[in-house]
Design a protein that fits this description.
The complex is a heterodimer of chains A (248) and B (412). Chain A has 248 residues and is of the alpha/beta class. Chain A is built from nine helices and twelve strands. The chains are: A alpha/beta (248), B alpha/beta (412).
Chain lengths: 248, 412
């Protein structure tokens, strides 16, 4: 599904990822944990294709094809979704209009027909209920004046609507209360299944109570330094990251 | 007339003097106005209020021939769907609408204004008073239904210069909607002076669209006197031209008058747009809100000069000004000058001005969601100017503005 081989990324001339390799097979959820500054967000931006995050070596294969040369929107059309750690506010752009434009842009890029306005409204209402967002919020400018928690719900709403092949969740749990964490778990668990993969980036174990990962990886100093089963997260919670920082 | 009126005249000013001297029917007031203008000449960049809009330099090589053959193929107005009462001023010649005037509305070709005291030191307005032969006069009475707007199309199609005036009065408690469009591929100087009064309790909405060819040099001055409980509301869109300066001067004369003056400039190539405004608060409890949005790419030049003057008597004034510029290329320019001059002590006045490029974070966010770069950029530009459109109270006008923004973005 998503296979990263020996990825090196520089940002502003500094090498942040230093030969990172990772394999998330279809149908699995993997978690990446790691201390501040280890390269977690750099990894998500590199996979998504953000300008300024230059992959100098290695490959990111999504369903067998290297996506590193593709524009961010072409990666999105291939089914890559990034739930942002800090979602943007976009004043002047109505939420519903934006999500529909994005959905249809992805569909068109895949050679599919646009979704009709009526079908879309039905879909967004249903998913808004799932993530606990008021209908009134959908008519507002995108994320403007929303709380941190509401912005994360908006990320989950989009993930539920786009039904991506592969989703990266960059610290989706930060700033969320228990109810919202539970909601995130529900959205992921509903989408989880054969043919779809997740990479859940987090500092803490608590989100992993709601999303049971198939594998947990520790990222330190730009490399995966340890991988293990779900139990590794609990171990880390107890022992901290220090051993890995020293090892790296 | 004195032979050497100008101090070091440009060829344009020499021709202008000859054209004025050849006129048979100039009044004494007009001759005096011309002499006052000649003492100053066209404003140049050394004059503070004109440093970003150098008419002296731009007009240097032009010919002011005033009576060139008027010929124009007139296309249907973008506002035709609103069923407006359509006036045309084609190469300076006024054409009134056919048929009977609606009840309560009076209009006609009238004598031009002889003096506007607050514009005495405005060189081009002074020249306009000297040069204009006939003015368009419009009076809106209370019984005029407000749903049918008045449209004035200023169409210039040739290299000649033209000087025109509109004199308008909106009666007590009346409501009037005016749309003005500046059109045509002309390449001369077009000067329009718009003198108006909004009487007690009246509401006046003005929509201005400047979409001329590249070469036109335009200066319009709208001088409005707003009485008690009256409202002056204006939304403008300009795609600029060689030099395009639209000025608005509002006097809030009596208690509880209000002004809303919003504008957007969308500039490409080396087009220039200048929105210069001044609102004078002369009485208490008046309110002014102003938003300017300027978008420039290539070598586009966006100029905004906004000034609020709050006089000593104008207590409880509420005045806010915001000017934002978006630069889409390294060579594009934004020149903003927001000014507050406050002599009253119990007021709420604020101004803010920003200038920047498209937000890279937002751009990446949109692209991650599947929008290609052009669509993502267009969406952000539409969002940037959206506040001006959202403030328009007639959806049909807002839709025309939205379409014009979309048309402009096609070439982005």
């Amino acid at each position: 599904m998503l296979k990263i081989e020996n990825l090196h990324t520089t940002v502003g001339g500094n090498e942040i990822l230093k030969g990172l390799s990772l394999d998330v097979p279809a149908g699995e959820v993997h978690a990446i944990m790691g201390p501040n500054g280890s390269g977690k967000s750099t990894l998500s931006y590199t996979i998504a294709g953000r300008d300024g995050y230059e992959a100098t070596d290695g490959a990111v294969m999504l369903e067998g094809a290297n996506i590193l040369g593709l524009a961010p929107d072409a990666r999105a059309a291939k089914g890559l979704f990034l739930s942002f750690q800090h979602p943007m506010e976009i004043p002047g752009v109505q939420t519903m209009t934006f999500i529909r434009t994005a959905l249809n842009a992805q569909r068109r890029a895949r050679g599919e027909a646009d979704m009709s306005a009526a079908d879309f409204i039905r879909l967004i209402r249903e998913k808004a209920k799932l993530v606990g967002l008021d209908d009134a919020k959908l008519k507002r400018p995108f994320n403007v004046g929303f709380s941190g928690g509401e912005k994360k719900r908006m990320e989950m709403l989009q993930m539920a609507i786009f039904e991506p092949r592969f989703a990266i969740m960059d610290e989706t749990d930060s700033g969320l209360d228990i109810d919202a964490l539970k909601m995130v778990g529900e959205v992921v668990n509903a989408l989880r299944g054969p043919g779809r993969g997740f990479l859940v980036i987090t500092h803490y174990q608590r989100l992993l109570h709601y999303i049971k990962p198939d594998r947990v990886h520790v990222l330190a100093d730009g490399r995966i330094v340890k991988s293990g089963a779900a139990g590794l997260a609990a171990e880390l919670e107890k022992s901290g990251y220090e051993q890995f920082i020293e090892a790296a | 007339m004195n032979e050497a009126l100008f101090n070091k005249p440009t060829p344009f000013e020499v021709d202008l003097q000859a054209a004025f001297a050849a006129r048979a029917k100039a009044t004494g007031v007009q001759t005096a106005a011309f002499e006052r203008f000649a003492k100053q000449g066209f404003p140049n960049r050394r004059i503070e209020g004109w440093k970003w809009s150098d008419f002296h330099g731009a007009l240097r090589g032009l010919s002011p021939a005033n009576d060139a053959e008027a010929h124009a193929d007139i296309v249907t107005s973008d506002f035709a769907a609103l069923n407006p009462l359509e006036f045309r001023i084609i190469n300076g010649r006024i054409e009134l609408p056919q048929g009977e005037a609606p009840e309560g509305l009076r209009y006609g070709v009238v004598e031009p204004v002889a003096a506007i005291p607050e514009l005495e030191r405005h060189a081009i307005a002074t020249l306009n008073i000297a040069m204009t032969r006939k003015a368009l006069g419009i009076e809106v009475g209370e019984s005029v239904p407000p749903d049918r707007p008045i449209l004035i199309r200023h169409i210039n199609t040739n290299a000649a210069s033209a000087f025109t005036q509109t004199l308008m009065r909106v009666s007590v408690n009346a409501r009037a909607r005016l749309i003005e469009t500046y059109e045509g591929e002309g390449s001369g100087l077009y000067s329009h002076l718009f003198h108006m009064v909004v009487r007690d309790g009246a509401q006046f909405h003005r929509t201005v669209v400047h979409e001329t060819g590249t070469d036109q040099i335009v200066n319009t001055v709208c001088a409005a006197k707003v009485d008690a409980d009256a409202a002056f509301k204006q939304a403008s869109l300009s795609t600029g031209s060689r030099l395009a300066r639209h000025e608005t001067l509002v006097h809030l004369w009596a208690s509880a008058g209000s002004a809303e003056i919003n504008s957007m400039a969308l500039l490409c190539d080396d087009r220039h747009s200048d929105f210069t405004t001044q609102v004078v608060h002369k009485a208490p409890h008046c309110r002014t809100h102003q938003i300017h949005k300027g978008v420039a790419r290539d070598h586009g030049r966006n100029v905004f000069q906004g000034k609020f003057e709050v006089e000593r008597e104008a207590q409880k004034t509420d005045a806010k000004m915001t000017a934002n510029a978006l630069l889409l290329s390294d060579m594009a320019e934004a020149n903003h000058k927001p000014e507050l001059e406050i002599y009253a002590d119990d007021v709420e006045c604020a101004h803010g001005s920003t200038c920047g490029a498209l937000d890279e974070d937002a751009l990446f966010y949109l692209r991650q969601r599947g929008l290609d770069e052009a669509v993502a950029r267009a969406l952000l530009v539409e969002a940037f100017v959206g506040e001006v459109i959202d403030g328009m109270d007639d959806d049909r006008l807002g839709d025309v503005f939205r379409r014009k923004v979309a048309d402009w973005l096609v070439y982005e």
